[in-house]
Amino acid sequence: MKIRILSLVFVLALVTLNAQTSENSLANLKEGNERFLNNGQTPKQYLDDVKATSNGQSPYAIILSCADSRVPPELIFDESIGRLFVVRVAGNVTSPEALGSIEYGVDVLKANLIVVLGHTKCGAVVAASSKKSYTPNIDALIARIAPAVDAVEKKDGKGDKVEEMIKKNVENQMSNLTSQSSLLADRVKEGKVKIVGGVYSLESGKIELMGN
């Protein structure tokens, strides 16, 4: 009986999530981060959510996040199991594997919001800015960040260039989502999916959103 009730609750939640707009989804994430910042997280019943989602998932947002252990999307957005479709790779880069995962989240799971989430003091961006050679696999990864590094280095000005590179990398990866995926480009053009960027502060826990 308990499982049936949990399943019914989950189905109702899915209907609500599917009915909401990308703006509603973004508002959910903003509110979740505010709760996280204020230690006001909503109570979670993770095992109940495990049972409720055992036969399917319907996340409302996709998070392309860095793999850094200090940036756990479900925690910093105060979300539970089954709500976010998270793709994590160092430097939050749009590799073919990441793009394929995001396309699945949009096309099959019907998520209506994609957030490219960078963070301060990103080690992958620092590695790319060093111009050093690492292993072949690491070099291939940081090559995807290099355009952001090069763009910032060409600009004059003072300040923390690494933080500028981090923001520029987020912007570049956002652009890659539609330039390298016709499916995502079509969904954005149709108004079915919204793409935003953000930078998470390792110091404060706050997420600075960067717009479309």
How is this fold's topology laid out?
Blueprint: H1 2-19, H2 22-37, H3 46-52, E1 61-65, H4 73-76, E2 84-88, H5 96-107, E3 113-119, H6 123-130, H7 136-143, H8 146-154, H9 161-179, H10 182-189, E4 194-200, E5 207-209
Parallel strand pairs: 1-2, 1-3, 3-4
Antiparallel strand pairs: 4-5
Helix pairs in contact: 1-3, 6-7, 8-9
Structure description:
The protein has a single domain (about 1-210), classed as Carbonic anhydrase (Beta-carbonic Anhydrase, Chain A), CATH 3.40.1050. The longest helix is centred in the last third of the chain and has 19 residues, at about 160-180. The chain has a 5-stranded mixed β-sheet, with helices on both faces. A hairpin with a 6-residue loop joins strand 4 and strand 5 (about 205-210). Helix content is about 50%, strand content about 15%. By secondary structure, it is of the alpha/beta class. The relative contact order is 0.15. The radius of gyration is 18 Å and the shape is globular. The protein has 10 helices and 5 strands, in the order H-H-H-E-H-E-H-E-H-H-H-H-H-E-E. It has helices at about 1-20, 20-35, 45-50, 75, 95-105, 125-130, 135-145, 145-155, 160-180, 180-190; strands at about 60-65, 85-90, 115-120, 195-200, 205-210. Helix 1 packs across helix 3 (about 45-50), helix 6 crosses helix 7 (about 135-145) and helix 8 (about 145-155) crosses helix 9.
